[in-house]
Amino acid sequence: MNSENEYISFEELYLNNMQLLVQIVDCNTVIIEAGRGTGKTEGVTSRRTIAVAKDLPRETSVLAHKSYVALLANVVPNILAFYSEPRGDEQKPLLREGVDYVVGERTLPGHFQKPRFAPEHPEHTIFFANGHNIRLVATDQQESIAGSNIVHIFIEEMKLNKGDKLKSRLIPAMRIGRLSKNISQTQASIYYQGVTGVSDTARVSIGEDSWFQEYEENMNEELVAEIVTLSLHINEALYNIHQGRNVEAMHKRVAKYSPILNRMRKVATLYMRVSTFINRDVLGPQYFATQKKMLTSSEFLTSICSIREKKAENMFVANFDELTHTFDDSYKYEAIMKFNLKDNFRITSEYLKHYNPDEKLELGFDPGSFASFVVAQENRKANEYRILKEHYVYSPKDLPELAREFNQFWCNRRNRNIDLYYDRAGNQRKPQKRQHETDAKELKHELEKYGWRVRLMSLNQRTIFHWELYKLMLKLFAPDDKAVPKILIDSNECPNLISSIYAAPIKKGSNPIELDKSSEVKLPLNLQAGLSTQIPSGMFYLLWGKFEKFLIMTKGAFSGTLPGNMTV
After folding, report:
1. Is 229 in the same domain as 128?
2. For residue 157, what is the domain's CATH number?
3. Residue 248: is its pLDDT beyond 90?
4. pLDDT, tens digit, for every residue of 115-124?
């Protein structure tokens, strides 16, 4: 990062049109709404972390995500892999660890400049040789940004962040609270108080947040076009200097127009919405044919084509409100913060803030080729019922793998008791399995191999009608109904449950009301977690088994009619 040459060297590399335009415009704020496989993290976020760091020595940027756990487990490893990937004929990395940057170090190498503000958690910080540092922050952990003075924000997977939380917690920290002798230089940077954000198109029908689309209105297309023209004009001069052609005149061109270009870049916003087809030359036609076969039409349109959709309507869980019925303070951050970025990190129940290892676990199980269950605990004192985790497998994996995954996650239990609620179909005999007559008994057997004590709660259970579930869900998810426990779902550990609640509609024209379970047939198994009624079904059986008593039964309740409840 400390190049001896004033001008960067040139190398041949491939960039798709999106990545190329980001490089050419290179302005204060860059927001990319792009489909899968377009190179958002590599071609936008990772490259701009280097540019921002180089231009703002000793200052602090932040790398933000909804979840701190996702940053540790996924985002940072991908960025570091980009830095260290061998490139060019000599197969040298873009940045050398220990020379150009370090991660998670309390004591910096001697040739590193010190950051202007010492980071509170150096073990969760990327340091560059010029003193620039990138901190990790999460919108689910307000304390991770408290007291910060930051110059630039990088946001990964914007659709997963709630815009109101991000704006209230992160944007106010974009300031420089104490003056230094380099304050004018810092404020002159084109990246100062800028934002770099990337995301797929938000699927609002399954609860994702499209807040970042507001930036589209901030883009001045005429200004961006002028920046492109001037940037290419200067880039041509730099290349001529590199080639030794008309060097003196080219230096004058650069000196004359660079300040103008920087002033334009400093006030510009680039917003791009592009589809995966922008990378068609690399991905090839077979990629799109495969995706078209695997994805639903709505998933293909949003994830591949970046076509926006409307909010969900006619939801079976009609009173579900994500702000009211989910929580994101999921983890014991005092324990997680002890991890270093260099450590291999894996989340387990040990780090769940709301899990009580001295209390039993309650599982809502839905068997089949896609087998899943949700895990919950009741807090009677607080009148809360928290769904803490989702688990699922699909063929060729089966219940042994599901039980093993469960046991690996819930590793710090002291109470080994499980109450298992399940689909009535799980009571039906399966003659092809001699050892275990039911899915529920088979799951019980697999869990008990690990020392759990499982109680089957739905033996001899009568048929549950969809309209009964619908009425009970209305009651349990009703706002401010203190007569029933408040249902709360962990948004970090149950993302597919939440998204599939939005994807669980009432069957059109049904009388009485029915849950539309067609997604379980139409979707391939690998897409059913967040887009079908599979995981919500386990939640329904759990809540029915626990709270059926709150359903006020009237005379003729099993007649199949539902007077007064047909308008949704």
Report:
1. no
2. 3.40.50
3. yes
4. 998 888 898 8
Going from the C-alpha of 17 to that of each of 225, 387, 449, 473, the distances in angstroms are 15, 44, 54, 48
Give Cα separations from 526 to 291, 294, 397 (angstroms).
Answer: 12, 8, 12
Q: Are residues 203 and 260 in the same domain?
A: no
Specify whether 105 is located in the same domain as 234.
no
Q: What is the pLDDT of residue 509?
A: 74
Beta strands in 477-525 (DSSP E): 486-490
- Domain residues for the domain of 145 are 27-219+270-281
Point out which residues pair with 34 in neighbouring strands.
274
What's the average model confidence in pLDDT over 361-367?
96
- Judgement on whether residues 546 and 430 belong to the same structural domain of the protein: yes
Strand 486-490 relative to strand 384-394: parallel, antiparallel, unpaired? Answer: parallel
- Give the C-alpha separation, 361 to 64, whole Å: 33
Reading the block at residue 442, the tokens are 């088979």
Could you give the CA distance from residue 19 to residue 46 in angstroms, rounded to a whole number? 11
User: Are residues 275 and 355 located together in one domain of the fold?
Assistant: no
The CATH number given to whatever domain includes residue 431 is: 3.30.420
Residue 332, token pair as written in the block? 């014991």
- The pLDDT confidence band at residue 385, using thresholds 50, 70 and 90, is very high
Q: Which of 162, 170, 141 is nearest to 62 (CA)?
A: 170
Q: What is the pLDDT averaged over residues 80-85?
A: 92
Domain check: are 215 and 228 in the same one?
no
- pLDDT above 60 for 532: yes
Residue 479 scores a pLDDT above 50: yes
Bond prior to 495 in cis (omega within 30° of 0): no
From 89-98, 232-241, 373-382, the region with the lowest mean pLDDT: 89-98
329 contact partners, CB below 8 Å, separation of at least 6: 140, 141, 353
Residue-level pLDDT at 69: 85
| Structural domains of the chain, count | 3
Comparing 8-17, 133-142, 429-438, 534-543, the range with the smallest average pLDDT is 429-438
Mean pLDDT, the chain, rounded, equals: 84
Number of other CB atoms surrounding residue 307 within 10 Å: 14
> What is the rounded distance in angstroms from the CA atom of residue 408 to the CA atom of residue 430?
28
Residue 14 lies in a domain: no
Same domain membership, residue 206 and residue 84: yes
User: Do 206 and 231 fall into the same domain?
Assistant: no
Q: How deeply is 396 buried, as exposed, middle or buried, from its count of CB atoms within 10 A (0-12, 13-18, 19+)?
A: exposed
